[in-house]
Amino acid sequence: MSHEISEPELDPAFVFDFQAYDDLADGQRWSTWLSVEPLCRGPQPRPDWVVTSQAAVDTDLGILKTGKEGDVFLLERAVPDDPSRRSVLAAKRYRDNDHRQFHRDSGYVEGRRIRKSREARAAAKGTTFGRSVQAVEWANHEFAALSTLWSAGVPVPYPVQIDGTEILMEFIDVDGTAAPRLAQVRPDRATVESYFEQVREAMAVLARRHIAHGDLSPYNILAQGDRIVIIDLPQVIDIVSNHNGVEFLLRDCRNVCSWFTSRGLEVDADELLAELLAQAW
Ligand SMILES: Nc1ncnc2c1ncn2[C@@H]1O[C@H](COP(=O)(O)OP(=O)(O)O)[C@@H](O)[C@H]1O
Ligand SMILES: [Mg+2]
Hints:
Bound molecules: adenosine-5'-diphosphate, magnesium ion
Largest sheet: 6 strands, antiparallel
Radius of gyration: 22 Å
Strand order of the largest sheet: 1-2-3-4-6-5
Order of helices and strands: HEEEEHHHEEEEHEEEEHH
Number of strands: 12
Number of helices: 7
Distance between the termini: 83 Å
Strand content: 15-25%
Structural class: alpha+beta
């Protein structure tokens, strides 16, 4: 009888990955595309710029904007040495610690349920665990809204994937720099008119689906040349099941209309609300 102990077999793929991992610099990770569940990836048909390769590396390019609930970073997802497989994404990371503020949580969560009761109780109590549950909930809610609205043809960034509190989405840029918010631009008359038509049409599509953005303002609308892109959707609300729904919709109408009025367009928030409600019912 032999007492020889055989060498453990080394998986060549593992050895290869391990060595490659050593080569990643600070601020880099392997693309998380394949490690998230298929349902955590964006809707089909997927734009051709989405990088799905197993060989892709994610590189943090720095912070774009800090916010109350989280921060938005620039992230490159690319296959090293293959310029045809390079994408730049916006990574919105919700903060799941004590520093996050919760002004959004009060009215919006009505009509939404957190399924697991332990999580629901923790969220209600505002414990640290509860806050991280809330951060994941907000991220999920925003990802779902982006997916639905992108598929409905609403101008929103394409949602690439969600991984816990991190959403990766299309980076809305003008010549490589982040597109300005509506609040920061002074377009000519024809562009202002066209922007209003685009915002009104987007709000109408939402209304027909019985939803309101819930935080629509010139800070959450980006101006990308001729087009507008609506962002920041963790608090979209169902205007039927939420009994403050119409008030949230009216506030969205007022925020939007006051910007257009300040840019010389004669628009009225009550008229816009009436038109949207007519679309909804
Ligand atoms: N997909 C994107 N492309 C370009 N800029 C973005 C994108 N998403 C967010 N930003 C920038 O980051 C800012 C904050 O993002 P937002 O989703 O509005 O979060 P919050 O207002 O809750 O911090 C935006 O005002 C915008 O300037
Ligand atoms: Mg915002």
